[in-house]
Write a structure and sequence with these properties.
CATH architecture of chain A: Orthogonal Bundle
Helix content of chain A: 55-70%
Shape of chain A: globular
Largest interface: A-B, 52 and 50 residues
Number of helices of chain A: 13
Number of domains of chain B: 1
Helix content of chain B: over 70%
Largest sheet of chain A: 2 strands, antiparallel
Number of helices of chain B: 14
Distance between the termini of chain B: 66 Å
CATH topology of chain A: ABC transporter involved in vitamin B12 uptake, BtuC
Number of strands of chain A: 2
Shape of chain B: globular
Structural class of chain A: mainly alpha
Number of domains of chain A: 1
CATH class of chain A: Mainly Alpha
Chains: A mainly alpha (about 375), B mainly alpha (about 325), C alpha/beta (about 350)
Radius of gyration of chain B: 20 Å
Structural class of chain B: mainly alpha
Number of strands of chain B: 0
Distance between the termini of chain A: 13 Å
Oligomer: heterotrimer
Order of helices and strands of chain B: HHHHHHHHHHHHHH
Largest sheet of chain B: none
Strand order of the largest sheet of chain A: 1-2
Amino acid sequence: MRIKLEKRPAPSTFMLIATPIASVLLTMLIGMLVFDAIGIDGQRAVVDIFLTPILASYKWQDVAVKAAPLIIIALGLSIGNRAQIWNIGAEGQYVIGALCAAGVGIAAGPDAPAITLIPMILAGIIGGAAWAAIPALLKIRWDVNENLTTLMLTYVSFQVLGYLVGGPWKDTNGRNFPATAPLPEQLTLPILFQGSTVHLGVAIALILPFIFWLIMSKSVFGFQIRVVGSAPHAARHGGFDAKQTIWAALLIGGGMAGLAGALEFTGSLKAVNLGFPSGYGFTAIIVAFLGRLNPIGCLIAGIVLAITYVGGQVAQTTVHIPNSTAGIFQAMMLFFILASDILIRYRVRFIPTKPAIADKKEARV
Amino acid sequence: MSPEFIIASIVTIIGLTTPILLAGLGELVTEKSGVLNLGVEGMMLMGAICGFAATAFTFNPWLGVIGAAAGGALSSMLFAILVLQLNSNQVATGLALSIFGTGLSSLIGQSFTGRIVPQFGSIFPDVLAKDPIWKLLFGYSPLVYFALIMVPLTAWFLKSTRAGLILRAVGENDHSAHSIGYSVTGVRYAAIAFGGAMAGIGGAYFSMVITPMWAERMTAGRGWIALALVVFAGWRTGRLLAGAYFFGFLMWLELFAKANGFGNTMPFLQAIPSQFWAAMPYIMTVVALTLISSRGNVGASAPACLGKPFLPST
Amino acid sequence: MTTLNRRSLMKAVGAAATLSLVGTTAHAADKVKIGFIFLGPIGDYGWTWAHNKGREAIDAALGDKVETIYVENVLEDASAIPVIRDLAQQGCKLIFTTSYGFMDQTLTVAAEFPDVKFEHCTGFKRADNVSTYNSKFHEGRAVLGTIAGKMSKSGTLGYLGSYKVPEVVLGVNAFALAAQKQNPAATVKLVLIDSWFDPPKEAAATETLINLGCDIVTTHTDSPGPLQILEQKGLYGFGQGADMSAFAPTAHLTAIEDIWGPYYVARAQALVDGTWTSADTWDGMKEGTVVIAPYNPAIPADVVALADEIKAGYVAGTYDIFTGPIFDQDGVEKVKAGEVMGLEQLATIDWFVKGVESAS
């Protein structure tokens, strides 16, 4: 028996939707088996990581707050990925966005009116976009590989963060701990439900996917992005400007990451310290892929990834696995989704082995 | 600055450099075959824990290094199967490998925190290894010499052997390499495995040489510096060595500045925030990549097929 | 989602989650739950290891009345909030958050759970249900400084720290002042690496200090990495938080051991008795929270005698290293001769004493 792949005439919609779901289920199953194999109660770990955050209503607010930045960043990244622009530096743009928002907040002073929140968040968007503009400029001007430059600039941003919170922006009442002063009450995002931690950023994260969906499916811009990504030659003939697409892809990606950083800062953290970069920018890449680069898909995938984060913390107390173990599950989901990509474009055929000299080119798979 | 201080500092820099040199050499070979593996950090951590665990079980650091290489290579195979068999996106798969390796190493490492394992002895007699002058040549861990030997070996392999020629051909033009009958996939499997093994040994340098113990995420982002190093070096072995020492020098400079090393003699340098030195390797890499991309005549260029999936036209 | 108590929660939670959340309490329904948030792994042989010993002391002393649970490797950022909240939601009535960086997170969660008591280690912000507690580690540093000042041949001592927070500043100053009492020319080179736990960076920073002429290096970060470097170089150092001699049998002169057990047991007992009130506790050698580990035989007998003298002075309450005259780095007199620095001064200190060489 031999396995052969046959190209489908059109990408399979069924597979497009079925594979992410299958990836999550397969991750749970394999995770359970692997954990059992190394002597950890696998069933308990998987239940805690994937189900407890859904079943325990008091965990919902944590899931919502975690999901918000993941969804917002992933929305921006999916536009880039659709246009075949690989921005893997969202983490850096997220940090710079938060720093810009913090900068405006500090400049406005502790007695600034609540309206200052608007320029703070705008500064976050602009800051994130500006940080992403560097790779965009280099890519357009000299064709510099954007996935390497965005990644490198992420590590530069961490040092910018370290310098600002440990130096000029250090809280004067913080006993020299490297962190900015906590935001005054009126400059923090409004809370949606009294007594919870669900802030306005969560609402933004719920609304944005639909706006993005409208733009991507109904506007010329959305059409352009899709064409440039799937058929660059056709795009050139159609008169779409490749440079314009690069700018759009990276600036939107950076702006969204910056927005997420500003919202996380004003809504959740209320101060910036060295622990601010917590990997959302990287996890959002998983979200974008799991969501199939579709805005609504990103919304769902963002919630799934947030569940694994929250569940990972639950498992930390119950089965005593390290916090980073949640990363194993997140990475497995991405592995499976990437592995199953091929099923969208190809059909798997099982062919009885022929004794003839096998065609080498096909024997690859 | 006394000669003793300079020699001691060089020894420190060489220690800081070795893990990124090892991982960088491996990644260089992988990238030369046309594959961009961003999973270096994860593979280093897998190497660090596997090396430590293997030493803990066998009480032999040499077997530990083999365990580290195996741990790194095995984890790289996860990546290889996905990108080579299933043509998955290399950037995303590599990132997933980094996240995966970080998580899995923490999980495996849980039972190894706080344990103590046998260490490499010095391969030279103490008279030389501990001498304030001669330690410059003889005072290192065996892994340092291994890394230094691997530099010319890798250069020779890539430049002068038939296998190296094929590997580069696969990275520069996979379709023509395929049409003359070379197995693009086979070559890339080997290159990825080599990259994984070297990253694993680089990781083991943390858990077995610098601080012989296991701690979660103990490579502290050095895998990303190794990635930067390959780009900074313009995919050239000789420049990789020089670049590694330059990056090591910058890491040392950060700590030197933190220790007020410039304070008494060069206050203007002391005024520069230490974060500037820490950011330098990444800034320099962006600059170097821009130079390489903008002009073909700097004697370096990225392998033409880097990061692109190979789809034979059947 | 507003006020959450365990009973309403039980109804909402499905069978699977109930299993996972209540599994540990099913057989211990009457026991009071006490939770711990740890910064590092309990196997770090330093800071967290010592706090976990304190947790075990509660189990040993009050095991029939209380039950303890813990979370390791909690990051000092916003992600700590849901972790702390999780312990409260799991029914903990007393929660110890054992690192400075959990300060605001602890207060945030404490405001949501007014009937749960919190104990934040090394912080300075309190509430009706949030106590703070700390230990006078600097008293131990005075002992280490005495040994280092006497044993150092170069007179140049190294100090590896995390941040310029009062705890570290006090440690540096106590170490330097004590060393200068033995060797007036002694200087202390300081490196702050902006992290509590980063073994390769700690190691490289230790090497840098050695290269700059330090022959004894003491650490105020949490891994045994620096001691391993000192062991390789044949030099001396001290353990931090716990006895680290297993990692560096010859280099390890002694260590400051953090003993949290007595305090933890007392607070747990107060909770059980219903006498818990918000307080600020700052114990030291006298109360037994700071203990000096067994001495390395390499320390000469006369040095041991000097060290023991300081120890005895602190235990008896007759000695204080922060007795004037004390000058700062620029030679300005900060404490007049005969005066002793007060607790408030110590708690907010941000200047180094004369003889400390630091980057800022």
